[in-house]
Amino acid sequence: NGTVVSDTGTDAIIPAATDTNAGLLLPAEKTKLINIAVGATANSTDAFLLDRTNHTGTQAQSTITGLASDLALKADLVDGKIPSAQIPGSFDDVLEFADFASLPGTGEAGKIYVTIDDNNQYRWSGSIYAQLNGGLALGETSATAYRGDHGKAAYDHSLLTSGNPHNVTKADVGLGSVVDADTTTTANIADSLNKRFVTDANLTTLGNTSNTNTGDQSVFQNIAVAGQGNVIADTTTDTVTFVAGTNTTITTDPATDTITFSSTGMTPVLVNNAASPFAAVDKQIIGALSSTGAIAINLPASGEAAVIHLADKDFAANTNTITINPNGSDTVLGETSIELTTDGAYVGLAIAAGSTDWYLYFFSDNTDTGSNGYRKGDTFYLTTGTATPFVQSTGVTALDVELIGATGGGGGAEGNGAGTIAVGAAGGNGGGATKFIEIAEGETFSYTIGAAGQGANVGNFPGGAGGTTLFIGSVSGTVQVTGGGGGTGSIGTSGVDGALQGAPGVGSGGDFNITGNRSLSWVVQGGVLIVFPSNGSPLWGFGTATGSIGAGATSGGLGAAGVGGLSANDTSSYSGGGGFRGQIKITEYYDL
Q: For residue range 179-232, what is the model confidence (pLDDT) as tens digits?
């Protein structure tokens, strides 16, 4: 430490330091000086930096007025980059969309939206999308684009080397004497072809003629038949074909250019007592003159449907009879002896052949003594209706009514495994009834057609019965045929179960009533089904069906029942076949 010595020998006085005079530092000033870092830049004041060139130290942020608040307002860097929002007029992202419709409903500022389909660019204005890239306008002037499709069409047109693509006329090129394609002229060509121009219509006409046509010909384009559709020649090669109908043959003779139509039906024969017994043939029509005595008519063998009509042509009262004799062991169901006791009576008989028997299904005996017979009118086939009125035609005095009953459905079969057989029974076949009704004054009629019996459901279930078919006259009464019953169901057994065929339909109230044939049963031998069940032989010749393994066969037609289901040696179950509806045939007759 140094020593202060006074030159005068008196006490030395050292003044305190001031801004202008040297002196001793006060303790506070010494402390302040100690706190100044080495190398600190000199300041004119504590807070104001005079010279940055010699400022080599650090300075606390708190000593700089407003620095902290200003730094707080500075935007932060994003991944070391200045955000685009801090750069005026800039965008921070480019977003791509398929088309304008795919853009968001509300966009974002600072983004570019690109529609890929047309490469247009948009920005969000705050309310709409504003396009950034201006479109190129179509036009035919400077700074416009010409349509590309027009340019292609012009280019393709320039490549044409045939025809007249520019529609140039002879007047356009000064060729007034040249003949164009639309001018009709007569060519002065003296050769054997005698060439001429023809119109398209002329050419079509020529094309429709044959090479052998030498002049006008009278032909018919249409062939008309009253009440039928016209036969029209569709082309020049169309051919009219004649088809022979029932009991008709057509014979052509190319040599004479003739066509002959001939009837092959049986010629009606007139039979009297002298020709008795008369041997009838299938589908023969017989007129019977019974005035000379009784007549016997022998039927042919059964096997084909035959219809034999017996008509009394003798207008004198007599009591002779016509007797119908079956062939061999065949039988006739119903009356076979018909007595003609009425003046001018008309007696009709229709006989149908089954597989073994002849069946009488139509019979009428007019007992109106004031009439000389009837003239046949229209025939109607009624197939639907419940309590439905039937109104005969004006002037009709008699009805010939033929009923065929509805049939039953077959029963179901429930399989029961190996070694067992389940046979659903067939339904009942249809019966019949016929009646010749002389219409009383004011008489009214109604009818009901019996519904088909339903086939059984899958399994051991019965088939349904057919409905009753009726024809009701307010005076003449009711003619009806009950529906065939349903066959019972069956469950598999090693023997033969008790499945029963449906009862056949029964006719009543007619001049002639028929009970339908019963369906056939089955035969099992040694545990094997050797005769399959069937609906037998329906009286009316329709729909004979035999069962087989599986669902029962549905009826094939009038009077035929449905067949039962059949399961053999397995657990499968089957349904029964459905029956058939009834029918009423009505033939109207007028007085002669």
A: 655 554 555 444 445 556 667 777 777 776 666 565 555 666 777 776 677 888
Average pLDDT, the chain: 75
SS3 297: strand
Chain centre to alpha carbon of residue 176: 65
Q: How is the beta sheet containing 347-353 ordered, strand by strand?
A: 332-333, 358-365, 347-353
| SS3 call for 152 | helix
- Which CATH code for domain 269-372? 2.60.120
Cβ distance 366 to 342 under 8 Å?
Answer: yes
Give the pLDDT confidence of 120-141 residue by residue, as tens digits.
998 898 899 988 876 666 677 7
The first and second tokens of residue 474, run together, are: 């307010």
Other C-beta atoms lying within 10 Å of the C-beta of residue 196: 11
Provide the 3-class DSSP secondary structure of residue 251: strand
- Residue 580 is predicted with a pLDDT of 94
Q: How far separated are the first and last CA of the chain, in Å rounded?
A: 179
- Sorted by sequence, the CB contacts under 8 Å of residue 444 that are 6+ apart come out as 389, 473, 474
Phi-psi region of 373 (alpha: psi -120 to 50; beta: other; left: phi over 0): left
pLDDT exceeds 60 at position 450 = yes
Among candidate residues 300, 349, 309, 353, the one with its CA nearest the CA of residue 327: 300
Look at 25-34, 349-358, 361-370, 427-436 and tell me which has the smallest mean pLDDT. Answer: 361-370
DSSP codes joined into one string, 438-460:
EPPTT--EEEEPPPPPPPPPSSS
The string of DSSP letters for 50-93 reads --STT--S---GGGSTTHHHHHHTSPPPBTTB--GGGSTT--SE
pLDDT class of 545 with cuts at 50, 70, 90: low
Say what the pLDDT of residue 218 is. Answer: 61
Tokens of 58: 């650090």
CA atoms of 582 and 81, how far apart (whole Å): 99
Q: Encoding tokens for residue 7?
A: 């030159």
**228, HSE (Cβ side, Cα atoms, 13 Å):** 8
Torsion angle, alpha carbons of 411, 416, 421, 427, to 10: 0
Instruction: Provide the residue type at 313 as one letter.
Output: K
Map 261-294 to HEC letters.
Answer: EEECCCCCEEECHHHCCEECCCCCEEEECHHHCC
Q: Report the C-alpha gap between 366 and 591 in whole angstroms.
A: 11
pLDDT score, position 143: 63
How many CB atoms lie under 10 A from the CB of residue 493? 15
Among 318, 360, 365, smallest CA distance to 338 is for: 365
Comparing C-alpha atoms, which of 319, 308, 299 is closest to residue 363? 308
Q: Which two tokens stand for residue 145?
A: 């684009």
The predicted model scores a pTM of: 0.43
Candidate ranges 10-14, 243-247, 483-487, 538-542; pick with highest mean pLDDT? 483-487
Q: Which residues contact 227 (CB under 8 A, 6 or more apart)?
A: none
Q: CA-CA distance, 450 to 407, in Å (whole number)?
A: 9
Tell me the two tokens of residue 71.
């730094």
Structure tokens at 108: 């974002």
**Cα dihedral 99/102/107/112 (nearest 10):** -30
Q: What DSSP designation does 41 have?
A: P
